[in-house]
Amino acid sequence: MSDRTSELQQIAERVRVCTRCPLYKSATHPVPGEGPANAEIMLIGEAPGFHEDQQGRPFVGASGRYLEELLAQIGLKRSDIFITNVVKHRPPENRDPMPEEIEACRIWLDEQIELIRPQVIVTISRFAMARWFPNEKITVIHGKAKRFGNLLVVPMFHPAAALRNQNLKPVMVEDFKKLPKYIADAKKNRDLAPPDEPKKDDPPIQQLKMF
Ligand code: URA
User: Fold this and answer.
1) Residue 205 maps to a domain
2) Rounded to an integer, what distance in angstroms lies between the CA atom of residue 155 and that of residue 28?
3) What is the pLDDT of residues 107-126, one digit of tens each?
């Protein structure tokens, strides 16, 4: 097992015993996230729902099945990407996570991003989107990538929104179709950067935590 894989597992172990906010009390299983430590794409949802809480795995319900369909259409499998949520324990009755819960859980997402260093982050919840795009509207910026140093962040609609509103399905399909090009662009940008010297506009990873 690579060092990064074992470090990622250590983060998951710490999430499993996390008591930083009260959500652990009502949850059945924590859901740290899953996927390869060297994933090029990281996908960030909102919080575990019923099925995720039962199984301890992200996106295993109806939203997850639709997400797998969207990925398949661009030749990707869920095992190619790292999938996680802003909040790692299920909020009771699937209510929105509260600001203090998001803040308490933030260290885990920070550590996952820092370790995996994905080329592209896809946000599929407004709480994930708010970290990089505060005050923006998903209806305006969905599918549009923005560069933060070496990282491209792409806000997308949540699969559950498309399951509720069929009109959103073709929009989501089109947005996902842009991902292969975004990944290729992100790789090219990294290849152009000098190996040991970050580019001038490349913010140190700590700076990510300000968003
Ligand atoms: N919705 C989310 O945002 N995350 C999950 O893990 C499942 C459904």
Assistant:
1) no
2) 29
3) 999 999 999 999 999 999 99
